[in-house]
Structure prediction request, 375 residues.
Amino acid sequence: MIVVLKPDTQPGPSERAALRAVAARYPHLELRFHRVRGALQDLHEVYVFGPTRQVPTEVFEELPFVQKVIRVSSKYRIIGRHDGQAPEVGFEYQGLTFSQDSFHVFAGLCAVDTREHVETMMRALARLGITTTRMGAYKPRTSPYDFQGHGRACLPYVFELAGKYGIRVIAMEVTHEAHLEEIHDALAEAGHPTGVMVQIGTRNAQNFELLKHVGRQHEFPVLFKRGMGITLEESLNACEYVATNGNHRIVFCLRGVKTNLGDPHRNLVDFAQVPVVKRQTRLPVCIDPSHSVGKKVPAPDRILDIWHAAAQGVIAGANMVLVDFHPRPEKALCDGPQAMLMEEMEAFFEDMRICREAYRKRQALAERTASALAA
Ligand code: PEP
Ligand code: MN
Prediction:
């Protein structure tokens, strides 16, 4: 059960006491207070855990500062929308808004290899007015003999250059709880020139201890990538581990699923699920066309498969795109075949703008249709 307080109500001592007094009338109820820092407003929600089935919603609704009470299904208690009852709120980070209505492209290196390549990337982004990127430092690789990422050794120059080129948020995968500390320390040492959205990779989608760790910390928002070999429902349940441990600043990323049915692409592109995730959860939805398609090949219309896949996700309302570029893909230490050239970056951003505009037009059309039907 979620008790949503009226907008801009601060649950002070008297409100908390009133809520606790109501809860005390029923056995084994536990209250957890949560402030949802929304993009538009701050919301305070109180999660009621325990045997809530016998608790009528009215007992909380009668309190003057309560807006409404949502009876949640056991699925996705916190990230879920509960048949549209739970509002979508989004979050702010580093002055940027992440919500089911926002749009950001995180273009960058799959893996940081040299300082020079990081600088080339960030300079190109800055020239296009882009303030978001991806930079892999900790790489979970299929083979132990492959490049594992430079780890904390590269963080000082990555953060320094981010500051130099006005990068506000870097998506960076972590594979162990210790990496959070390393990123925290390196950011502090560099004087906080930028922010980091910590990425949980597909291979760790059900690493529950790691999920609990990123959930317990409040410094970094989380980019959760769906598991490549589990159902969407299992991925959303895993994502709920982050939220239930206290961190609600989560973006859910679709990145394709592993099956030969997706051949010749690296994964079977799953971007038709953008609206599904938006309907079932309150989370902004990201798509990763690079890891879905896995190779840089053009169709006869000269449009790259990666662009076509990205377009499918964005035209369906995706809120974020995570995408690989590299100054010298043939020299890349990780995922070179799917990296686009720097010379293609400006056109890619233009294509994304076209797709986002098309989504906006489709949204307006659907709105008009729905109004006409209701009239
Ligand atoms: C990545 O984004 O660098 C990555 C390894 O992706 P995934 O976890 O989706 O394979
Ligand atoms: Mn990769």
Summary: The mean pLDDT is 96.
